[in-house]
């Protein structure tokens, strides 16, 4: 299976998962700070729904700040589009050639997988990313990728307990490979997902007032 087929499969799986969510789940917080499930879905489908000229205009409105533009559009589009429309935008564009500005086709797969996990992990759903997709992303993970997404992994060894995979060196952080991939992309995880001496550093506080499944 080539990577474009893998991307299409991931988008199809994500759309099917979104189709099965309850109205309440669409309004639950994701692992993306400040975004509910619906904002994440709007963000995932942004590149399919807007052509480059429109994205350029949106970037100008955000004074050239890509993150500000993405946040603004996610919030506006999540308010304007129904859950069914957001899921359909992902499903109907499974084979869309969109790529992030950097990283190419592998980054496109990472974009879909990571944001899918932003949803499923936050909701406590038991979805496991197929191993061939996960291995592809783990093989392409670099310290530069982690730094780009704000993950401070200095002095930490990511050590998967479900795959023969580790990354970095130092204080151990142990968990499922897909959870460790989230850590490498700058996420903190709900309590119980991680173990090892570095777990507290990369886990969300159970006493923060946020409700976890």
Shape: globular
- What gyration radius follows from the Cα positions, in whole Å? 17 Å
Instruction: Name the CATH architecture of the largest domain.
Output: Up-down Bundle
Which fold name fills CATH's third level, the topology of the largest domain?
Answer: Four Helix Bundle (Hemerythrin (Met), subunit A)
Major sheet characteristics = 3 strands, mixed
Mean pLDDT, all residues: 93
Strand order of the largest sheet: 2-1-3
Q: Label the structural class.
A: mainly alpha
Low-confidence stretches: none
Task: Report the β-strand fraction as a percent range.
Answer: 5-15%
Q: Considering DSSP H and I runs of 4 or more, what fraction of the residues is helical?
A: 40-55%
Order of helical and strand elements = HHHHHHHHHHEEEH
Question: DSSP helix count?
Answer: 11
Question: Structurally, how many domains make up the residues?
Answer: 2
């Amino acid at each position: 299976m080539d990577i474009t087929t893998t991307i299409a499969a991931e988008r199809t799986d994500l759309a099917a998962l979104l189709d099965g969510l309850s109205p309440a789940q669409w309004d639950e917080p994701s692992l993306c700070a400040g975004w509910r499930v619906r904002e994440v879905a709007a963000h995932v489908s942004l590149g399919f729904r807007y052509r480059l000229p429109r994205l350029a205009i949106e970037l100008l409105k955000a004074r050239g700040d890509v993150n500000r533009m993405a946040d603004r559009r996610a919030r506006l589009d999540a308010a304007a589009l129904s859950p069914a429309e957001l899921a359909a935008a992902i499903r109907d564009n499974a084979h869309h050639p969109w790529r992030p500005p950097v990283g190419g086709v592998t980054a496109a797969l990472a974009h879909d997988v990571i944001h899918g996990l932003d949803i499923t992990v936050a909701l406590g759903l038991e979805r496991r990313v197929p191993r061939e997709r996960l291995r592809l992303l783990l093989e392409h993970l670099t310290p530069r990728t982690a730094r780009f997404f704000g993950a401070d992994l200095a002095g930490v060894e990511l050590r998967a307990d479900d795959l023969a995979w580790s990354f970095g060196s130092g204080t151990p952080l142990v968990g499922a490979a897909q959870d460790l991939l989230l850590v490498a992309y700058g996420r903190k995880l709900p309590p119980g997902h991680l173990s090892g001496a570095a777990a507290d550093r990369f886990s969300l506080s159970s006493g923060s007032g946020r409700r976890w499944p």
